Amino acid sequence: MAKSPKDKDDIRDILETHYEKVNLTDEMQTSYLDYAMSVIMGRALPDVRDGLKPVHRRVLYAMSELGNTYRSPYKKSARVVGDVIGKYHPHGDAAAYETIVRMAQDFSMRYCTVDGQGNFGSVDGDSPAAQRYTEVRMTRIASDMLAGIDQETVDFVPNYDASEVEPTVLPTRVPTLLINGSAGIAVGMATNVPPHNIVEAINACLLVLDRPDCTIDEIMELLPAPDFPTGGIIYGLGGIREAYRTGRGKAIIRAKTEIEEIEGTDREAIIVKEIPYQVNKSQMLEKIAQLGSEKKIEGISFVRDESDKDGIRGVIELKRGANTEVVLNNLYKITELESSFGINLVALVDGQPKLLNIKEIIEAFINHRWEVTTRAALFQLKTARSKIYLLEGQAVALANIDEFIEVIKTSANGAEAEERLLSRSWPSALVGELISRTKLEPKYFRPEGEDLTKGLQSDGTYYLTSAQAKNILQLRLQTLTGLEHERIEKDYAELAEEIHQLVTLLNNRDLMQQKIAADLREVQESYGDARRSEIVADAKDFKTKDLIPLREMVVTMTDTGYIKSQASAEYRAQKRGGQGRKATEVKEGDIISKLFVATTHDVLLCFTDKGRMFWLNVWDLPEGSSNSKGRPIVNLLELNDEKVSVVLPISDEDFQKDLYVFMATANGTVKKTPISDFKNQRKAGIIAVNLVEGDYLIGAAITDGVHDVMLFNDEGKAVRFAEEDVRSMGRTATGVRGMRLEGDSKVIAMLVAQEDDVTVLTVTENGYGKRTPINDYTRHGRGTKGMISIQTSERNGKVVSALLVNDNDEIILLNSAGKLVRTRVNEIRVMGRNTQGVRLISMDQGVTVIGVERVTENDDGAAEDETKQLEAEAVAEEKEKQEEIQKRDDEIIAGEIIEEIDDEEKKDE
């Protein structure tokens, strides 16, 4: 019975006996590093030599030991899984089966190493059948990965319980890491090696084998890009070349598509024939259908999957009139029809993880082939020497058959017979003759460790060794017949030639290199196939706007946020004072709040009233007729309780120039920021200006920093100052005072003066306006109250807009009723600053002008023809109107004549 502790000292003695004090920090560091290295080496990263992780290597070795090769019948997957986890891989059966499934999927592996029979999943993400239902065996290429494993070509180590041995690496003849790639996440690192075409990969290996000093650029001429099992289009080589040089990069993969006309209609359909690697086809098509129904991608009518056993076929039907190339490009931009493959060339080199370039991967494989080929030759040489050595003993026995039989008959047992055979030399002219025919010294026919004093002597006799004597004693009598003499001579000559070739091979580096190259070419001929992934090398120069025809568009946006674009040619020029034509359909209570002119290739910098800015391409705007409302801008931009107050068209080239974005707020604050600060697009927008409480943005323009800036308020005042008076600031700055305001007056316009021969067009809310020479506005310091720009009166109302115009320009005026009139600028009178102006647009009671925009002349012939047609219609309408007026006047005159006659008759009475 154990003695219980009686006091604290006894307890302390027990604790000190069973426990050891350690530093917690040191223990955590040591344990974590041990765990990390275990994951790195035992699970996550492939060996650079055979390109396999331990689980893949163990699966193939278990199948090989089970005899489950490509020449044998299929075996149940559960049987293979049992061998793998029972002998070599002490993990769950689900993990082992998932590995086997992926090795059998032709859409996951470029060259499958497992031949599966049954349901092994699909490219739509369908799960495979349970392991008890499926059957597997090795593929032929997998057998080449284990070729020579029984020839001491690789090292073996004990398995997890030391009951079996397993190879540390496979003696593969195939550059597995290149042709099938590998993916894994370890602790603090990851790998993602893409698959390649085996023909191209072996050509690159042959180049490095023949010219070890070759460059990576020369390798990339033979191995230009990955080759994915699902095909697709590799879109640009920039990221791939970077990965091949540094170990890290990115490959852009696009689906391969065709354009087909839908039979019996004037519509087209996009047919998806191949998809990017590792993309779920079903989910991708569902996402496309959802984006089409939500109008996030315009032009999609219907999406369906027509894939079958013959291949992938996804059908995306388009609406009538949709631009197929634009829709396809938007699909590439938004959906998984285009995806990226992040290349990370990390593998184990001598048991340590390392980031490699493409040449280092090939060199590691080539060095592995050197070692395997050398070890195989040494094993074959050892085997041949053992065989030829025993043949010499058999030849001696055959030459002395009677004496050998007599010795065996008269011996008491086998040990005595062996001792008597070894105790003397035996005459053997046959052995001497056989050795003399060889091209090598007799020492090359002795196994390692054998006594060189034995064997053929100088007097022509032969001393047997223990191994030879034992072999002779185990021979059957039929092997001592006369016919065996010819067999021994033949076998001896063949083995001697084999030994000669192996010795020559091991002593000649050039021959060894030729042997390695021949093995690689044999693999290339056996498994070589055409590329599946098409390469578009110059894709990086492709831009969406290249697909968009260059047109001038009138963009309108309503107060509630509906935006659309229309060709500017749809608006015909009218005489001053005309009634105009309808610009857009607006719902009840809504009005048009913004109009601007831009080309389809422009980018719109959309500034909100809260000082944020978003990017929007003009070609992404919905194009509609005068009867359409457009599309809510909230579906195009991620707005948060804010409205777009300023829109600034800009081209991509402008971002590279030394320009500024000059901004003004309603409270008279101004600010300029380098345009480069707005280059990097973000979907959630960026801060353009920091606004104080109650202020909002009213204007923005692109400037070069040397011109004058003009601010106009709604009370008819204007101020002009040099842009140089405002220093450059960051995006989040508030700015400085540009104009001093009185009362509740607000700044309504900001202009940048660039030419002396332009005029300033000022328009009031009641439809009156005028042009004033820009030189009439003299320069003063910023922050002043300004000078009179136009007289505001009850007739004019407040000022709503001011802009710079030339004589050959046209303007578009919009009123709150949704009507628009296009007028030539040269029909508007030039007047001084301190005047009221003339009527520009006729409006009904309660309707006011809300927007004015300048329109440049359109040189498009088709647009001119359409404009002429519209003008002809206007002339016809005017003529009809004049006829109605004349008819009414005639009726009035006739009535007056009748009244005069009646008056005369009354006088006569």
UniProtKB/TrEMBL annotation:
Residues 45-547 form the Topo IIA-type catalytic domain. Its EC number is 5.6.2.2. It is found in: Cytoplasm. Its main location: cytoplasm. It comes from the Bacteria. One of its GO terms (molecular function) is DNA negative supercoiling activity. Pfam families: DNA_gyraseA_C (PF03989), DNA_topoisoIV (PF00521). Transmembrane segments: none annotated. A motif (GyrA-box) lies at residues 574-580. The active site is at Y133 (o-(5'-phospho-dna)-tyrosine intermediate). It catalyses: ATP-dependent breakage, passage and rejoining of double-stranded DNA. InterPro entries: GyrA, GyrA/parC_rep, Gyrase/topoIV_suA_C, Topo_IIA-like_dom_sf, Topo_IIA_A/C_ab, Topo_IIA_A_a_sf, Topo_IIA_dom_A, Type_II_DNA_Topoisomerases. GO terms for cellular component: chromosome; cytoplasm; DNA topoisomerase type II (double strand cut, ATP-hydrolyzing) complex. One of its GO terms (biological process) is DNA topological change. Keywords: ATP-binding, Cytoplasm, DNA-binding, Isomerase, Nucleotide-binding, Topoisomerase. NCBIfam families: gyrA, PRK05560.1, PRK05561.1. Heterotetramer, composed of two GyrA and two GyrB chains. In the heterotetramer, GyrA contains the active site tyrosine that forms a transient covalent intermediate with DNA, while GyrB binds cofactors and catalyzes ATP hydrolysis. Belongs to the type II topoisomerase GyrA/ParC subunit family. Few gyrases are as efficient as E.coli at forming negative supercoils. Not all organisms have 2 type II topoisomerases; in organisms with a single type II topoisomerase this enzyme also has to decatenate newly replicated chromosomes. PANTHER family: DNA GYRASE SUBUNIT A, CHLOROPLASTIC_MITOCHONDRIAL (PTHR43493:SF5), DNA GYRASE/TOPOISOMERASE SUBUNIT A (PTHR43493). A type II topoisomerase that negatively supercoils closed circular double-stranded (ds) DNA in an ATP-dependent manner to modulate DNA topology and maintain chromosomes in an underwound state. Negative supercoiling favors strand separation, and DNA replication, transcription, recombination and repair, all of which involve strand separation. Also able to catalyze the interconversion of other topological isomers of dsDNA rings, including catenanes and knotted rings. Type II topoisomerases break and join 2 DNA strands simultaneously in an ATP-dependent manner. This is DNA gyrase subunit A.
